[in-house]
Design goal:
This protein is of the alpha+beta class. Helix content is 16%, strand content 34%. The chain has one helix spanning 19-29; strands spanning 11-15, 34-38, 43-49, 55-61. The N and C termini lie far apart (43 Å).
Amino acid sequence: VRVAVDPVDGGVSFTVADLDAEMRRLDELGVPYRWSDIPDGFGRQAFVQDPNGVIIELTEPGTAGRRPVT
């Protein structure tokens, strides 16, 4: 199930380690969402809307821009 959610309206964002697992959970719960890749390898994100209309962004970071641990 997918829904048209406008990420420009503001909301709250959480970083997740496994966006696929989170989207499976949303599917299991029947929660509509929209997902997309973040350009240039910066990761992926999914957007859901809570009952009050607040946009919740789930972001799985990509590898672009990461500095190696030394």
